Amino acid sequence: FFFNDTATTEIYTEQIVGSVRCVQETGPTPVKIFNQYKQNKVAFGVGTAKEVADKIVQNYKQNEIVESLTVNANGMISVKISDAFLESQITNLLRGGIHYFQEPNQTITVDFSSPNIAKEMHVGHLRSTIIGESICRILEFLGNNVLRVNHVGDWGTQFGMLISYLQEKFPDFKQNTPNLSDLTTFYKEAKTKFDEDPEFKKKSQLHVVKLQSWDPDCIEAWKMICQLSRSYFEKIYSRLEITNNEYGESFYNPMLPGVIKELEDKNLIKVDDGAKCIFMEGFQTPVIAQKSDGGYNYASTDLAAVKYRIQELKSDRVIYITDAGQEPHFRQIFAAAQLAGWWNPNALRLDHMGFGVVQGEDGKKFKTRSGDTVKLLELLDEARDRAHEQLKQRMQNNQEGQQTNLKDENELLEAAEKIGIAAVKYYDLKQNRISTYKFSYDNMLDPKGNTAVYLLYSYARLCSILRKSELGEEGLKQLINETEFKITHPHERILAFTILKFPEVLDTVTDELAIHKLCDLIYDLAVKIAEGYSKYRIIDDPNKNTRLLLCEAARAALEKMFYMVGIRPVSYTHLRAHETGRNLVCRLLLEKKKNGLSRENASCCLIYT
Predict the structure, then answer these.
(1) Residue 426 and residue 94: Cα distance in Å, rounded?
(2) φ, ψ for residue 301 (rounded to 5)?
(3) What is the signed CA dihedral for 416, 418, 422, 425, rounded to 10 degrees?
(4) Torsion over CA of 436, 438, 444 and 447, rounded to 10 degrees?
C-alpha cells in the first residue's frame, strides 16, 4: 500500500522509450536518459534533456497516484502525488497494519556481538551488538528468515592459561562453583602469572594440548568458564533486548581438518615457512589457513564458518558486523571462499558491515578516568542513573511534573532504565556507522535534540491525544473501520507523505546497511508531528475524527520504527516531567525561525510537493 518512487519512474520512462529499460539504482532522470542514448547530440528525436522531460510529461497516462507533472528549465520533473492516493494509503495502513515484504524472501545470516569468553563486554562491543540486533529486526520485518549468530571467542590457547589458573585458585571448582563476578580481573591475574611464572606457563601449554584432545577434566573446566561468561553476557543482552544464538569458535573446530584438506585437494594451499597459506591476487599477505605448528587461528575458523553458512545454513546473504578495522581480513576470507568455489557472488551476497570506534568527549579512545576500558554493564548503569536523576530533577522543577502518576521509586527506575537504554541505542544508531563518534551522556539524554528522549516524548504525546479523545481501544477500531482518512490541512499532507516514505527508506537501509537513514526518518516524522500541533487543533475541531486517524497512523509508524532501533516506548506521564507540550512547540518554532529550516524531500529526478 505504499508509494514507491522508483517503480513509478520506471513507468514514466517506459512510456517514452518503449521496450528500452532505463532503470538505474537511483531511478532514471531525463538527463540520464538523454546522455545514455544520445547519438550525434540527439536522443529520441530531441536535442536536450528538457525536451526528453517534456515528452515524458506529454505521453504520461493519468492514474490515481499522480495529480500533476511539471518540468522546470533544467529538465527536472516535479511530481505532485494526489491527495486521494495519500488518503487511501493512510486508510489502508490503519485497517491492514504496517506490512512490507521484500521479494524474494531470503535466508540471511547475521554475525554480530561476538564477545570473548572470560572477558567482560566493554564499550567496543556496544556497536556490533546494537547494530546487529537492529538490522536483524529490520530484515525480519521484511519477511526474511534471519539467522542470528553470536561468534563468541570460546576456543584457543588462552584457555590453557585460564584452566590452569582455575584449578590452582579453586581446586574444588567441580564441587563448588566459584563466584567469578569479575571475569576481567580473573583473566588479568591468569595472564600475569602466565607471563611471570615459567612453571605455570608450561602447565598452561600442556592444558592446551589436553583441551584440544578433549581431556574430560579440561573440558569440564572449559565448560564452566564458558557458562560463567554466558551468564554475564545474558545480563547485558537482557537489558539491551538482544536475541542471538551462540555459534562460537569451538563449534567449527571439528570442521577445520576437513576444510584444510579440501583447500589442499583444490591446490589452493601453498606452504610458506611451514604454514599452510592461500595466496591471492590483489592481496599483499596470504590467508594463513593453518599455522606452522599445526594449530589453527582466526582465519582458519572464519574459513570454516563462511563455508558452513553458505553450504549448510543455505544462506542467501551473510552479514558480518565488526569494527571497520577488520574489513581487510574479511575481504580476504570472502575472496578465498570464492576461490574455493564455495561462494558465487552472482547468487549470494557477503557483506562486511563495518563501523567506526566510540571515542570519549575529548576525541580520544573512550576510557574510564583511571584509564581502563569502559565496561558495557557500567556504561548502561550510568545511562540509567543519569536518566533517573533527570526525571527527578525535572519533576521538581516543572509544574507539570506534579501531575505525573509515578507511584514509587521502582516505577521511576523502570522509566529511567527504558530512557537510558533507548538513549544509548539511538545515539549510536543515528550515526553513520562508518564514522567514529564521541560518546556523551549529556547529548544522549538531551530532551531538545535528535535524541531518544525527544522521540519518546513525541510518541507519548500522540498516545495522550488519543486517550483524551475518549474513544478507547474499541472506539478507535470502530473509527478506523468506518471512517476514511481525509486531508483537511496542507500540513496533514506533509505528515502523511512522511509516514509513507517508510518502506522506501527500509529498502535503502537493507541495501546499503545504513540504519542511520531509518533514524533520520524517525526524527523527521517526530518533528513533523510537533509542527502540526502549532498549525491546527485536533480534539476540539470539526475535523477531529480524521485528524485522530492521522495521529494513530503516525503513532503506529513510530511504534514499528522504534522496535527496529530497539526503543521501548515509555508511558506519557513518565515523560511529562521532561518538557511541556507548549514549551516544546514554542522551542521548535523558534529553532525553525532561527535556522531558517525548510525541508523538501527531493530525489535526483522527482521533487515531491
Answers:
(1) 26
(2) -65, -40
(3) 100
(4) -110
User: Taking the mean position of all CA atoms in its chain, how far away is CA 18?
Assistant: 40
Distance, in Å, from the CA atom of 75 to the CA atom of 473, rounded to the nearest integer, reads: 50
The SS3 call for residue 266 is coil
- What is the bridge-based pairing of β-strands 275-278 and 287-290? antiparallel
Q: What is the pLDDT of residues 452-508, one digit of tens each?
A: 999 999 999 999 999 999 999 999 999 999 999 999 999 999 999 999 999 999 999
Fill in the DSSP letter of residue 324: G
User: Chain centroid to CA 326: how far?
Assistant: 19
> Minimal CA–CA distance to 384: which of 343, 414, 340?
414
Burial 440-459 (b: 16+ CB within 10 A, else e): ebeebbbbeebbbbbbbbbb
Q: Which three cell numbers stand for residue 234?
A: 545474558
Alpha carbons 604 and 59: distance in angstroms, whole number:
21
Neighbours of 432 (CB within 10 A): 13
Residue type, 149: V
**From start to end of 211-252, where are the E strands?**
245-246
Phi/psi of residue 81, nearest 5 degrees: -75, 140
Q: 3-class SS at 459?
A: helix
Question: What is the C-alpha separation between 417 and 458, in angstroms, rounded?
Answer: 18
Q: Which of 499, 565, 566 is nearest to 532 (CA)?
A: 499
Choose among 163, 130, 155: nearest CA to 421.
130
pLDDT digits (tens, 9 = 90+) for 129-149: 999 999 999 999 999 999 999
State yes or no: pLDDT of 24 exceeds 70: no
As a three-state string, the secondary structure of 95-164 is HHCCCCCCCCCCEEEEECCCCECCCCCEHHHHHHHHHHHHHHHHHHHCCCEEEEEECCECCCCHHHHHHH
CA 253 vs CA 249, 256, 303, 307, 463: distances in Å: 7, 6, 11, 13, 52
Are 520 and 465 in contact by the 8 Å Cβ rule? The answer is no
Q: Is the dihedral of CA 26, 27, 32, 36 positive or negative?
A: positive
